[in-house]
UniProtKB/TrEMBL annotation:
One of its GO terms (biological process) is response to stress. Residues 14-150 form the HTH marR-type domain. It comes from Micromonospora citrea. It comes from the Bacteria. It holds the Pfam family MarR_2. Gene3D superfamilies: Winged helix-like DNA-binding domain superfamily/Winged helix DNA-binding domain (1.10.10.10). This is Transcriptional regulator, MarR family. InterPro entries: HTH_MarR-typ, MarR/SlyA-like, WH-like_DNA-bd_sf, WH_DNA-bd_sf. One of its GO terms (molecular function) is DNA-binding transcription factor activity.
Amino acid sequence: MRLVDQPRWLDEREQRAWRGYRRMRRLLDLELARDLARDAGLSEPDYDVLSDLSETPDQRLRLSELADRMLWSRSRLSHHLTRMQQRGLVTREECATDGRGAVVALTAEGRRAIEAAAPGHVAAVRRHLIDLLTPDEVAALDALSHRVVDHLTGRDGARG
């Protein structure tokens, strides 16, 4: 029988910070999603796909790489891309270097959609988060978010 370590319960300050972060994240995600849907007719996943594709030199990504970036399964992304294809935002092509792989490409309509959505989205990000913070708080947010991401992705040396 394996002994289980006793949990290190959060103290009052840590509990307040954790609960505040969780509530902030849910409310911020909800507000940004509402703004995107209302102002641009896009969902957050639509925006993520379009912005990731628009930031590549040839506006294409392998489906597997896009799924990894979004932290989605290939199957889930494939279903979402089907809906985006039906709206003319993206196309799927065979991968030239690997016949089994697929490449997702931004269409002209997709380019127009992300260019139309981006100004309103950045304004919402500013309104609901960035402009509420001091420059020191933005720097702290940058540092802590990257520290957690590096830990969770194994880039901090903690994994594997």
